Amino acid sequence: MSSNTTSIFLFIDTNIIRQTKSDHDAVLLDTMGKKPKEKQRDPRLFFRYDTCWAKDKRAKVIIKHSWFNRADNTLEKIYGIRKSSKNDLNKGLVVKIDISKAYDRVEWKFLETVMKNMGFADAWINLIMKCVCSVKYVVKCNRVLTNTIAPERGLR
């Protein structure tokens, strides 16, 4: 991994771990390595995941009831949760779902547009898009490396 590749992640310490019996090197990403500087506009300080997650016990009951008493269709379950929460005082509700197969088809431009429409800060969107779009592949064919391949969709 070149220094150019790792330098775009300003707040992540990167260390390359050399492998003796492999043709690949592991890259250790330490997200807590570089601390934000005081009195500076650090994008990590603006987003708080815990403020987005439902802490209210009533919200958890609504989610549990809607999730287990609906059909197998995930969209139908989410609709039921949203419908139940609209009648309650707690209208801000986030649902966390593991949809790993759907990530294979996510176009990166679509992800960026969705984040903009949801009102995320530009600094946050740029940081996420750098993480997503920094993936590059090189294929070895007949002992010769090809040009760099930059995918345009899929999240892993």
TrEMBL record:
Organism lineage string: Eukaryota, Viridiplantae, Streptophyta, Embryophyta, Tracheophyta
Source organism superkingdom: Eukaryota
Name of this chain's protein: Reverse transcriptase domain-containing protein
